[in-house]
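Dear support,

Our group has been running a series of protein-ligand predictions, and this particular one with magnesium ion is the one our PI (initials K.S.) wants archived with full inputs and outputs. We had some confusion internally about which version of the output was final, so please treat the block below as the authoritative record. The input we submitted was:
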Amino acid sequence: MLKVAIWNLKGGTGKSSTAQNLGAELVAAKFRTVLIDLDGQRTLSYSFGMEKSSPNVLDWLERRGQPLLTGMDGLYLVPGDIGMFQISSEEDVLGQALARLKGFDVCLMDCPPSLGAPTLQAIWNADRLLMPTLMEPASLKGLAEAVELIKDERQGLPVDILRTRYKPRLRISRDAADQLIEGVKRSHYTLLKTAIPENVAIAEAIARQMPVSEHLAGSLGAAAYRDLAQEVASRWKLSQS
Ligand SMILES: Nc1ncnc2c1ncn2[C@@H]1O[C@H](COP(=O)(O)OP(=O)(O)OP(=O)(O)O)[C@@H](O)[C@H]1O
Ligand SMILES: [Mg+2]
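Confirmed final output from the archive:
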């Protein structure tokens, strides 16, 4: 099972939307996928109508219960809990719980926009880091800082940067993307080819508590997440076991 942490220190960059919609598209492509909501805000759980479901992540970390089936066939979720910030930053509780998970090809861990214990646990255990990033000058500055922090925690962790809420018609967005392309050349990080456009269907899908592919299959947002799933399945060498 490939374990992917979805994280950026900056808030509102589309981390939870990416966990929701990439997860749905990976399942559609027949990869057995489990999502873990590590954020006390529980946006990911809400986006599947499972904000108050149990067992939640705190139970699961304490060996009580298995991931729950979402409304989408084949897609599983460990729902979040508001008390998540209290977990240990010393004992590797997430690693122990992940080792007990069987029968999945890929696990996407939705992290909060901070570097507290839940994120640290995810980064210690991840095979890869996926960083959704807005194409704005301030976001790029935050990205550089976040990347430095990660280096201290996990030297050599592969990082894929995903442009989210992308508005190619805006000069500032295009300039930021160009700057990012140059910056990435000097690093060992990868900029994914697929960019997720700013698309209201993605925001509506969260409110309607379903993936964008179910809310509006013909939308630009749904198409972009389908492309992203194809790109990462190949880049991450995912295999159906
Ligand atoms: N591509 C998009 N187009 C339009 N709206 C989007 C897009 N992606 C996300 N949003 C909206 O932006 C807001 C933040 O998205 P999301 O919750 O996925 O970000 P996040 O990085 O998980 O936030 P946080 O840091 O608070 O966990 C939500 O209201 C969501 O509906
Ligand atoms: Mg989130």
